[in-house]
Every structure is written in C-alpha cells, then in structure tokens.
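User: I'm curious whether this sequence folds into something compact or stays loose and floppy. Could you predict its structure so I can see for myself?
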Amino acid sequence: LIAKEEQKLLYQSVVGVAGTGGMGGHVAQALTRVGVGHIKIADTEEFDVSNLNRQSGANLYTLNKSKALETGRQCRNITEDFRLGIYASGITEASAEHFVQDCDIVCDEVEFWATGSRTFLHQKMRQTDATSFTCSSIGFGTVLTKFNAGSMHMEEVLEMDYSEAMSVQKRISTGTSSREEIERTMTLMLRLAAPIIPEYCDPEQYSTVEEIKRRLREEVRASIIGTNPLFAAGFLANHIVLELLRRKSPIRRIVPIPPVMPGYVRNDSWLQIYETQVGKWW
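Assistant: Here's the prediction. I'll summarize afterward.
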C-alpha cells in the first residue's frame, strides 16, 4: 500500500498533534506506527476519570498525569526510531510558533471550548506552509475539515478575532460566562465540529440532538461514545497520510481529498453516509 520510497517521504515528514484527548492520542499513535519521522504533541490537561471511556492514554495508571507526556510515552513505547516533541503547556502564545515550525500538517484536536488557543494556532499556522486538519467525533460518525493559508480563516468561522476568542475561552473555563455567551460560542463551534448533528432515535421519544445540545449548555461537555473516537481518528490519520503522499510522492495517484474551508467530508457508520460539502453551510 505504501512503497519503500514513500516510506522515506513519511519518515521525512513533520506532523503536529494539538490536543491528545479522544482523537489526538489515537492519531499520534497511528502516525507513529505508520512511520512519520517527527511528531509533535501538545496538550495542557491531565487525564481524569471522565476520560476513561474514550481516550487512548487514559487508564488507572495515568489519572492526574499530563496527557501530552503520557501520550508521548505511549508512542515511545511503540518505537524509538522517530523524533518526538512534547508541549505539556499546550498551545499558548509562547509555544504556538515553535509548535507549527517545520510542520507539514497540523492536526487540530484542541478542546471544543478553547476558542482562543485554536484561533492562535491557526494564525501561526497560516504564517507557514502547513495544512491543518480538524476532525471531530459526532455520535457514530465524523466530520473532517481542512485549512491552509488560502482557505477561510478560523476567525471567520468563529466570528471572533484572537483577543475576543481568548476572552471567551477564559470566561468559559472559569465558569464566569453568561448563558448567552455559552449559547453563542456553542453555535459557532458546532459549525466546525458538528455541522450536522445526527438524530439516531425517534425524536418524539428521545432526541439525541437535543440531549447533546443540553449537555453542552448545562455541563459544558461534549457527548462522545467510547467506540467512535478510534473510528474518527482512523479516518483522520488516513487523510493525513494521503495528504503527505499526495503532495510528496511522484508515484501516487491523485486521490479525492477534503475541500478546503468552507467545506467538509462527513462519514457516519450508523447512517451509512459519506458525503462532501463544498461551500458555506451556515
């Protein structure tokens, strides 16, 4: 599936994984196993009990330990034959520029409500030639979006500049934001993470859409089933590898790739849907 000369191209590639929760931890390990030669991992959080149902690095021995460090440790346990960069302070004004430096691709798995960190990451990414993929776990499916220097900016999607986005992030993280601000931020972030929330049940008896939104509003938490992050992360990791080979390999046939923003690819294993959206959907 991957020729010997292409394996060398992957080994010469640099991929940054920003956020190592439900999706990012799986992706970092998959990229390690496929032979990417330089992987950067960023996350400021520690594993807690709520992570046990879905995050690859979460277990009874890693609770209250750094997600970035423990994910890096898992990757190192797979092989030592690659470069590994750990950013345990996450994506900050001090770390973002160094994190994106030399990256061919940035995997944006920053936490849902971290609007400021995500915006700053994309600002720094646009100053390089890096491409960014953002992929989410939605029910039994996933949505993949692609950003680069010529695409729509993250600030346009979220309708916030960096200053406002960081202020919103700080208020939500400290529990001082208003219900109106949470509602607005949720609506804007769902454009990116879940442009379509699937209804898996009879909505007259139980609405998955309304329950997901209720939990986001009231608990400021996303609803993720433990079986799906591996599916979604595999979809994302495949597209990262295909993007690297598409751009670098002289023998690789051109394959369909996600359109740049505004646009997305959606894949749902329950509803048996695979579709591509080109252009604004809001």
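Summary: The chain has a mean pLDDT of 95. DSSP finds ten helices and eight strands in the chain.
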